[in-house]
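Following up on my earlier thread - several people asked me to post the actual chain instead of describing it. Fair enough. Here it is, all 424 residues.
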Amino acid sequence: MTPLLALVDCNNFYVSCERLFRPDLWNRPVAVLSNNDGCIVSRSQEVKDLGIKTGTPVYQIQVLINKHNIQLFSSNYALYADMSSRVMSLLEEFAPSIEVYSIDEAFLDLTGACQEDPAVYGQRLRATVQRSTGIPVCVGMGPTKTLAKLANFAAKRWSRTGGVLDLSDPARREKLMRIVPVSEVWGIGSRTAGRLNQMGIVTVRDLACQQAERIQARFNIIVARIVLELNGIPCLALEEIAPDRQQIICSRSFSRRLTEYRELSEALAEFCSRAAEKLRSQHSVAGHISVFIRTNPFNPAEPQYQRSAGMMLPSATQDTRMIVSEAHRLLKAIFRTGYRYHKCGIQLSHIQPASVSEQRDLFDFTPRGKADSRALMDMMDRINRRFPKGIAVAATGFDKSWQSKVERLSGRYTTDWRELVRVK
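Reply from S.P.:
Thanks for posting it. Predicted structure:
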């Protein structure tokens, strides 16, 4: 049976979520901002048409914002996560297997499940999601994940597709590949695309016509698999169960510049708590911790400083208290007075399942108390899930004035009883 995979991607997802409860914003320029309301992270088509790129700092386009009355929103992650869950639940009704690839994307295995014309099936899927959630999506189909991703790109780019494109037909596939740059292929980054261009490989078809062995010799096995996938040979299986993360990073820019060690340590303690919660949510422990701090690189008028430090933990852990304590030690080693710090963060690595037995130090006679620690952390997580931010672990205090600005935050329309939309 010929494989048939589909990639369903929500259009301008953050913006679509904001418009869902503000119908007056349809057909008007809307953008969603990053943490601290600093940069553009999601754009409506009207904003894209103005030439504004993702990642553009707000202060650089303030004239355009005022001229075109662009509506700006702070990132409302509670709303976006809930709407994503609703979309993914609907998609599960259309396919026996689904891989949630990101907050706004999912791969569906439609092999044998689609008894009608795939494009018609895709249109029905698209209409159902739009009707039931209000979120517009595009659907790309093909015998491999790479081709489904390519089809989705075309479905978004060209309106005459009706938001759905099936690349199962080799003739249609080749026609599209001739006009799409190789840089648009899923998994081909800008540096790889530049090297391919130097070899005369400019379009997707140029890459598909290469021998996989030659490409592997010049690049790596990942690019070689892309060549095979572009030729309809599946190399990437659907991951129905998301793999555990091998690194956990938690960092934020501050709403104001921090100059004191106390303030930095308080911020870092909160980031450690969040990272530890993520670690425990996948039932893992971390064996290495890294901490970094830096000033604002976009303000050359100020003295610049950035440093990082890392260490192996005495034993792999998921205990927030131990992670905060070791991060505190690392911060002391790299902190320097006289600088205005813009950002700090923590990275946990050497991650392994909590059930794996570890090699103990022969001369370490200190009882670990791991069972008690895990029970305590589990209880803390349960309390925080029931009463958000009910328990916090701090290094020195609980001053939150450094937290990111959210001056344009919309309501949590679907997750907070107090913020439900009222119909008059």
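The chain has three domains: 5-10+79-230, 13-77, 248-356. That should answer part of your original question.
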